[in-house]
Each structure stands twice: as structure tokens, then as C-alpha cells.
Design a protein that fits this description.
Number of helices: 10
CATH architecture of the largest domain: Alpha-Beta Barrel
CATH superfamily of the largest domain: Metal-dependent hydrolases
Structural class: alpha/beta
Shape: globular
Number of strands: 7
Radius of gyration: 19 Å
Order of helices and strands: EHEHEEHHHHHEHEHEH
Number of domains: 2
Largest sheet: 7 strands, mixed
Length: 288
């Protein structure tokens, strides 16, 4: 079964609705996908309802997923989670705290933009750029800066305002990767470290540490990973007894380079099978 286990919707920093994601995934021949919006799981139910209403159950399966943004030694570490129990209280509190941190960061940045740069943006204007109750983030702030005339394009907004050395940027107070992994694991989920190449030389040490908190996988297949990186992280996973996952990390059609299509990355069919097997193994271990 062709799969893509890393997809974003407009409930975070993607541009497609969950319904559009489902339609696109079916069009490109995917049999299973995971919607992994940043710090929320709202798109899952929307997508599932769409599948049910349109009798698409035989065409595609959706896994409940999330991508939790964390900080570790000045690195932004992303933790993917699959199959969590959405009713788990600690998991619910994690999402609530992450959302509050996003709102606080955004309001503080908007205040500094107004005071130091004379760029006036209302928080309500930022909220309009994401689905109701979705995760507000840097892409939305950058778009709002551009719309307000602060820069001529979004990339300039990032370069000038949305980075740690900018006088108007405020770092988000977020959860640690250890806590994110532990909470996802305790909620019956499978925690996976996302696109580990971004972590440079700390990746292996951090992965080994996170295994003490329940880390169960490495995202070896990712559009940023070269074949050599895929092999490197796959071998690391095998040596550590972890599963391998992968996905396109789809956010939006890329007009310059051609559309980054869902499932564009070659992800072996056994990746999905191993993920499901791991969930069954954890469920059996939990009741034994």
C-alpha cells in the first residue's frame, strides 16, 4: 500500500483543506496517509467525516497524526506522533499548552513589530490565515507582514523579521522533545523523530536519549533526505531497534519547482506495515 505519513493541512501551516488532501491523495494512488499538523489533530475528524460522507473507505485510510514542535539546546526538534488516544488527558494538555504558547508568541511579535518597525498587524488578521482553532505559526506571521506592506514577499519577511537574531522576534516557549515523546507514548501513540538531518551532529545522541522516554521510530524517508541520508538513518534505526517512517512533509504546491505531490517521495510499502505492527505490539504490551 502506497503511503505518506507526513502531511499538513490549513489547520497548521499547510494550504489545503483536509478534504482536498484526501482527494489529492486518492488521485496520486495513495492507500494510506497520516495528517500531521503542527500541535493539533483537528484535521483528522474532518477528513474522516469527508471519507464517510463520500463512501471513500475502500480507497484510502487515514492515520491520526501530529507533529509537535519542541526545543532542545537551541535546536527546533519536531516529534511526530501516530495513533494517539485523543481523549488522553496529558495529550490534551500538551496540545492546549502548545496552542497557548503559539498565541503568546504571535501577540508578542506583533507588539514588537508595531513598536520597533511601525508595522501594524491585528491578531485577528493572523487568525484568518489558519483554519478555526488551528495552529498559528511563523508562516502566518510572515504572510501578514507582507500583506501589511512590511516586505515585498514572504521570504523577505522571514529574512528580516522571523529569525532568532531579529529585534522583533520572540522565541516560543515550547515543550521539550523528551516530554513530547513521553506524552505521545503514554497516550498509546508511536513517537517518531522527524527529518533528523536538520539536527546535524546531535541527531544520534538525541535519538538514543529519547528512546529512554519512548521514542519508537526515525523518519528516514523525507524530501530533504538524500539517498545516502535515507540509508544512514535507516541503518541507525535498525541498529537501535526502531522502526522507519517517511513522508513528503507536504505543505503546499511549489509553483517554482513543480508541485510537491503527496507521496512523491519513494516510501516502501513495508513502512506502513511496520508502523501498524508497532502499534499492535505496543497495545499488546500495554495490557499484558
Amino acid at each position: 500500500m502506497k503511503t505518506d505519513l507526513h502531511i499538513h493541512t490549513y489547520f497548521s501551516d499547510g494550504v489545503f483543506t483536509p478534504e482536498k488532501i484526501v482527494d489529492t491523495a486518492i488521485e496520486v494512488g495513495l492507500g494510506s496517509i497520516a495528517i500531521t499538523d503542527h500541535d493539533n489533530i483537528l484535521a483528522y475528524d474532518v477528513a474522516q467525516n469527508y471519507i464517510k460522507e463520500n463512501n471513500l473507505q475502500d480507497k484510502i485510510e487515514i492515520i491520526r497524526g501530529i507533529e509537535v514542535n519542541t526545543l532542545y539546546k537551541n535546536y527546533e526538534v519536531h516529534i511526530l506522533g501516530y495513533f494517539m488516544d485523543p481523549k488522553d488527558s496529558d495529550f490534551q494538555n500538551l496540545i492546549k499548552a502548545q496552542q497557548q504558547a503559539r498565541v503568546k508568541q504571535t501577540k508578542e511579535i506583533l507588539n514588537l513589530l508595531n513598536k520597533k518597525e511601525g508595522i501594524k498587524i491585528k491578531f485577528e488578521d493572523i487568525k484568518k490565515l489558519v483554519a478555526p482553532n488551528g495552529s498559528i505559526g511563523r508562516p502566518h506571521i510572515a504572510r501578514a507582514i507582507t500583506s501589511a506592506g512590511g516586505t515585498t514577499n514572504v521570504m523577505d519577511a522571514y529574512a528580516k523579521y522571523i529569525h532568532v537574531d531579529s529585534p522583533v522576534y520572540v522565541q516560543r516557549k515550547t515543550v521539550s522533545p523528551q516530554d513530547a515523546v513521553e506524552i505521545i507514548y503514554d497516550a498509546g501513540g508511536i513517537p517518531v523523530i522527524a527529518h533528523p538531518h536538520d539536527l546535524e551532529n546531535i541527531a544520534e545522541g538525541l535519538i538514543k536519549d529519547l528512546m529512554n522516554y519512548g521514542l519508537r521510530g526515525i523518519e528516514a524517508y523525507h524530501r530533504k533526505h538524500s539517498p545516502a541520508m535515507v540509508e544512514y538513518f535507516s541503518s541507525m534505526a535498525e541498529s537501535l531497534g526502531l522502526i522507519v517512517t517517511g513522508g513528503s512533509d507536504f505543505h503546499a504546491p511549489n509553483i517554482i519547482n513543480g508541485q510537491i505531490v503527496l507521496g512523491k517521495n519513494f516510501i516502501p510499502e513495508w513502512v506502513y506495515d511496520k508502523l501498524v505492527e508497532e502499534k499492535k505490539r505496543l497495545d499488546i504490551a500495554a495490557v499484558s
